[in-house]
Specification:
The complex is a heterodimer of chains A (118) and B (110). In chain A, 4% of the residues lie in helices and 50% in strands. Chain A has 118 residues and is mainly β. With 110 residues, chain B is an all-beta fold. In chain B, 0% of the residues lie in helices and 55% in strands. In chain B, strands 2, 4, 5, 9, 10 and 11 form a 6-stranded mixed β-sheet that branches. In chain B, strands 1-3-8-7-6 form a 5-stranded antiparallel β-sheet, with no helix packed on it. Chain B is globular and about 45 Å long. The relative contact order of chain B is 0.35. The chains are: A mainly beta (118), B mainly beta (110).
Chain lengths: 118, 110
């Protein structure tokens, strides 16, 4: 059973370009979460999605950032017109669809995408 | 969004030592509690869930005090491989998500 798969592992963009980060959840998981971790900082929640729905985007910057989780295919975190401050590690996590509350709250993380903006 | 507070450390201990971390959370409605471990430049990994009655997994013991809203993690007989950042994690019922503390760094030396 493959874990949470993220790609690319490393992404380099110049200021003003677009960054697309992909996340495939674990098999049997339909809940996806995106987090950002700045250097020397903790994990910051960005967005929570289920298939075709954004459930909670309270942690997403209002501009340039968007996320989707289509019926088919991976979840995508899209950053338009990147700036140097967007350089960070972006982690995706997924959680089980069924089970008791404690089990459904456990999140399993992908290896992350490290975005560097030049 | 509610907060989870941890002492950032670092905690420097010799191999074989016992070390304890505490964490406080602000949302009294939280129901699920976890400790995750994060190695440098790696993804967080679940270390253990924290149950109301406390629980133990090998050298690791987790305790929950709902009245005081804090969680603890005790590591006995520390190994070099225990060096990592330990993240206290609490579910946030109002937002259906998890809130992560900034982590406590542990450095175990020979």
């Amino acid at each position: 059973n493959a874990g949470v798969m993220q790609n690319p592992r490393h992404l380099v963009r110049r200021r003003g370009q677009e960054a697309r980060l992909r996340c495939s959840p674990m098999k049997g998981h339909s809940h996806v979460y995106w987090y950002r971790q700045l250097p020397e900082e903790g994990l910051k929640f960005m967005v929570y999605l289920q298939k075709e729905n954004i459930i909670d985007e309270s942690g997403m910057p209002k501009e340039r950032f968007s996320a989707e989780f289509p019926k088919e295919g991976p979840s995508i975190l899209r950053i338009q017109q990147v700036v140097r401050g967007d350089s960070a590690a972006y982690f995706c996590a997924s959680s089980p669809t069924v089970g008791p509350t404690l089990v459904k709250n456990i999140q399993y993380f992908g290896a992350g995408t490290r975005l560097s903006v030049l | 969004r509610k907060e989870v507070e941890q002492d950032p450390g670092p905690f420097n201990v010799p191999e074989g030592a016992t070390v304890a971390f505490n964490c406080t959370y602000s949302n009294s409605a939280s129901q699920s509690f976890f400790w995750y471990r994060q190695d440098c430049r790696k993804e967080p990994k679940l270390l253990m869930s924290v149950y109301s009655s406390g629980n133990e997994d090998g050298r690791f013991t987790a305790q929950l005090n709902r009245a005081s809203q804090y969680i603890s993690l005790l590591i006995r007989d520390s190994k070099l491989s225990d060096s990592a950042t330990y993240l206290c994690v609490v579910n946030d019922p109002g937002y259906s998500t998890l809130t992560f503390g900034k982590g406590t760094m542990l450095l175990v030396s020979p």
